[in-house]
Amino acid sequence: MSTARSGAPLPYSDPRHQSAEQFLTEEAHLLDTSEFEAWLGLMHPQIRYRMPVRVTAVKATDEADVQTMDHFDEDWYSLSKRVQRFGTDYAWTEDPQSRIRHHVSNVRTFEGDDGDLVVESAVLLYRSRGDRMAPSLLSAGRRDVLVSTPDGLRLRSRDIEIDESVLRTQNLAIFL
């Protein structure tokens, strides 16, 4: 799987950058409107979707050296099961359903070593859980690999680097 990026970012006027940015915008819309089946259709069959646990380390320690766990590390099968579960009466973590809004910005696109697109972006997720709990915000950087298919761009991998080491949200039953 290609994840290495090469060279400078593509110009914002490059059609590949514009396609990647449109992909992320449309993906955010599908998640914000709970169109999870359509969102799953944007995934490549070899998807790897992960969010490592952030570790606060002293400057002398490389954070990657102490990285040992993920909040989640999913593939096509596990993502499809999560999406299926949302359609049942057993999705208790989302009852009532969260009101969410994905704000995607700072999109930078690079050509990957196999001609794929490596896309770096920032996401700010606003989540409200009804009228009893304070809303939560999650801020993260994402590194995606998008591949061209006959059906358009598909997400083959996503690494989410959350900006906190302690999550202050009720659960992670949402997609970032």
Descriptive account of the structure:
- The protein has a single domain, classed as Nuclear Transport Factor 2, Chain: A.
- The longest helix is centred in the first third of the chain and has 18 residues.
- With 176 residues, the protein is an alpha+beta fold.
- It contains four helices and seven strands, in the order βααβαβαββββ.
Output the keywords:
alpha+beta; Nuclear Transport Factor 2, Chain: A; 7-stranded mixed β-sheet; 7 strands; 176 residues
SSE blueprint:
Layout: E1 5-6, H1 15-32, H2 36-40, E2 43-52, H3 63-66, E3 70-74, H4 76-86, E4 99-112, E5 117-128, E6 136-149, E7 152-162
Parallel strand pairs: 2-7
Antiparallel strand pairs: 1-4, 2-3, 4-5, 5-6, 6-7
Would you summarize the structure shown here?
The protein is α+β, with helices and mostly antiparallel strands and 176 residues long. It has helices at 15-32, 36-40, 63-66, 76-86, and strands at residues 5-6, 43-52, 70-74, 99-112, 117-128, 136-149, 152-162.
Rg measurement, Å:
17 Å
SS strand fraction: 35-45%
* Average pLDDT number: 86
CATH architecture: Roll
Oligomer: single chain
Main sheet summary: 7 strands, mixed
Find the CATH topology: Nuclear Transport Factor 2, Chain: A
